[in-house]
Amino acid sequence: MREWLLFVTQYTAMIVNAMALMVIAFGTIETFLRGLRGLFSPSTSGRELRDVYLRYARWLVAGLTFQLAADILDTATGTSWDEIGRLSAIAVIRTFLNFFLERDIAQSGNVENAAQSDTRLPDK
User: Fold this and answer.
1) Element (H, E) at 36
2) Where are the domains of the chain?
3) What residues contact 88, with CB distance under 8 A and at least 6 apart?
4) What pTM did the predictor assign?
5) Using CB atoms within 10 A as the burial measure, which of 7, 32, 56, 110 is most buried?
6) Tens digit of each residue's pLDDT (9 = 90 or more) over 12-46
7) What does the buried/exposed string (b/e) look like for 18-54 if buried means 16 or more CB atoms within 10 Å of the residue's CB?
8) Chain centre distance of CA 121
9) Helix axes 46-76, 2-40, angle to 10 degrees
């Protein structure tokens, strides 16, 4: 029974890591193409490039979340304290990256909401 659980957990972690890879790769390709288009388009504003960055940050948050899930699964099957410590350090680093990316996304949303409310002020 234990071998079966280890087998399922290891393959599940591998599948989740593959999903994270696909999310990050797709987001990177999309961002690269949108960024190139934005850089070479004369009508591109700074806001449009910021939107490209924010969309990429969302892709990265999703990918990091999947990778963290895979790390948790790997930790469940860790056989040594050294392996568990290494996976824990990686999980902490990914969690901090995720935190700061989400904070950037939230701050950008707050700035955008403030700018929109400033433009909607009634005329006196």
Assistant:
1) helix 2-40
2) 2-108
3) 75
4) 0.73
5) 56
6) 999 999 999 999 999 999 999 998 888 888 776 77
7) ebbeebbeebeeebeebeeebeeeeeeeeeeeeebee
8) 35
9) 170
